[in-house]
Structures are given as structure tokens and as C-alpha cells.
Amino acid sequence: MNTTKNKSLRSYNTFHIEQSVETFIEINHENELLKLIKDKNTFSKPIYILGGGSNILLTKNLEGILLHNRLKGIEIINEEDEHVFVKFHSGEIWHECVLWSIKHHLAGIENLSLIPGTIGAAPIQNIGAYGVELKDVFHQLEAIHLQSGNRKIFNRIECQFAYRNSLFKTTEYKNYFITHVVLKLNKTPKYKIDYGDIRKTIDEDFQGEINIQNIAQAVINIRKSKLPDPAEIGNAGSFFKNPVITEAHFLQLQNNYSSIPHYPADNGVKVPAAWLIEQCGWKGYRKNNFGVHPKQALVLVNYDNASGDEIWNLSQQIIESVSQRFNIQLEREVNVW
Ligand code: EPU
Description:
Blueprint: E1 2-8, E2 20-27, H1 30-38, E3 47-50, E4 56-57, E5 62-69, E6 74-79, E7 83-89, H2 94-103, E8 128-129, E9 132-133, E10 138-145, E11 151-155, E12 176-186, H3 198-206, H4 212-226, E13 234-235, E14 244-245, H5 247-256, E15 263-265, E16 268-270, H6 273-279, E17 286-287, E18 290-292, E19 300-302, H7 308-326, E20 335-336
Helix pairs in contact: 3-4
The structure holds uridine-diphosphate-2(N-acetylglucosaminyl) butyric acid.
């Protein structure tokens, strides 16, 4: 267990925001976490759990303790005729797990290639892209309660997965440290290539040959062409969720904007936030060292040394202009600390 006082978090968040934390603790093994919990004084202050830092916006120096999840390991734990159950320890990098699965001819997460972050963060916001969500392959996870040290298994139903949401976003369950996630991967692939440009990219780049490797590479190529690489330009992927509006509200908007993109949703119509933001003129906006990415209006960017407050204020201005023009309240997808 490595502990550092007043540690800079700049290289621990993909927005590259300069803020620090009072106490930074690296968790390399579950026993280290259990030992901390036994010492009752440890968690009298606020606790933050950090994986890849790819879905946070830091707006202040953090008081308290930040636990940096470094739990590593990948194991096959069960096999059935059609499925293999794989236990991924929560500090593993998500994309490396996708590559591991492809190498082992296991299908189900190829469409989720190149999503930044760790395995432990994936269920919290039910990561999704190109027609697939984590919940589609999720079997169960184990988590340790940070006050009692109790371990608990959560199955798919208990996790209450929804669009970029789960039980672990509620105040009570933020106190659980996810230690591993078990995914139920398919021996026989069920290809999903009808979302966005996947089929077109496979036709162009791989002469139409469909397999999980080519799907993953097509997704990687598409993401690289549209989304900024956090190693080069600070960002946290989609900053906002795609809003769901009522059918009546949608029809009213469609009267004025006949080309408005939309998708069916459980309780209404989903409209891409990127489209709403672009209509309000924000796409490619830049002020000083921060702005809205020129190729994807859903992504706010830190070009160099912007503060978390500057980016938060920009997001607030965007929320207000979308609200005024479309009467839709955008919600932040990124966690603000
Ligand atoms: N669009 C615009 N302007 C833009 C970008 C997109 O009008 O600047 C329109 C497109 O024309 C399209 C629609 O918006 O009709 C949807 O665009 P896209 O398929 O690029 O996806 P998205 O809804 O903007 C979501 C996820 C992404 C994920 C993509 C692909 C959310 C919040 N975001 O974006 O996830 O990669 O679909 O599946 O659901 C992330 O969560 O960090 C992330 C990148």
C-alpha cells in the first residue's frame, strides 16, 4: 500500500486538470483495503474512489482520502456450452480486457472497444457504445462496503442498470468499492454492426469480412476519427447524457426541425445531446484553453491548463442555451468532484 500526502491529480484525470488530494492511497490488493477499514479512524473523512479518472471533472483540491484502484487480474471461472464466465479484477483497464477477450475468441464486448477507464467503473455508469451496453454481458460483481468491510455480490437485476446509470450512482451505494466484475461472454458471436458507421467501416477497411476482431478495429477507427485522444487533448468523453423527452415534446420540435435525429427510448424519445449543442452554435467553440470539440459537440476539452471551474462554467452555459432554445434540460454524465 502506497500512501502520498498532497498529491497532484493532474496525471490521474483524463481532463488533465491540476488539483490535488490530501491523502492518496494506492490499493494493490483487497487485504490493503480491509486493513484500512479495520482502522476506524481512516474513513472519518470523505473518501473518493478513482479508477482511470476518465469520467471526472475536478473543480477543487480534495480533502480526505482518495483510493486509487490497482486491483489486477483476469481469470476464467466457469464455462458452459455457449458461454464463458470471466472474472476481471476492477483495476484492470477496460480496453485491455476487450483485447484479452478478443484474443481468447470471446465475443460480446468488441463494440465497446477503446472506451477509456477501468473495469470497476464500467458497471457504475453502465458504459455503452455502438448498440451495446455493459449490462448485455454483465453477470455479477463483488464489492466491499467501505464502513463495515462486508463483501457483497450484486447480480444483474440488483445493479439496476439503466442508460448510463446503476445502483452505484445512488448516495448509499457510492460507499461500495467494487473489487471484481464477472462478464458472461459468448463463444458464438452475435454481431451488432448496424449502429452508426460500423458496417460501412468494415466494408471499406476489411473488405466486408465480419468477425469480432474486425468489429473492434472498426470501432477503434471510428472513435479515433471522431473523439479526441485524452493523451493528447484533455477530455472525459461525452460530457452530457442524451436526454429523453416526451413524444409530444418531440413532435413539437420536429415541426420546427424536420431533420432532428432521434431514437426510441423506454419512456419517450431520445434526442442526441450533441445535435442540440451543435444547433446552439457551440460545436468547435474555443475560449482561451478550453472549449467544445470540433468533431463531436458532446465532448468538452481542455487544450492546456484550463481549470475545472472554467469547464464547469462552460457546461452550465451550454445547459442554459439548450434549455432556452429547446426546453430540454441536459444532465452531466461526468462526475463533478
Ligand atoms: N451529432 C451531431 N453533432 C455532433 C455529433 C453527433 O449532430 O457533433 C448527431 C449525429 O449526427 C447522430 C447523433 O448525434 O445523429 C448521435 O451521434 P453519435 O452516434 O456520434 O453518438 P452520441 O449519441 O453523440 C453516444 C455515446 C458515446 C458513444 C456513441 C457511439 C452518450 C452520452 N454518448 O454518443 O459514448 O461512443 O454514442 O455509440 O450516450 C461516452 O459515453 O463517453 C461516449 C463517447
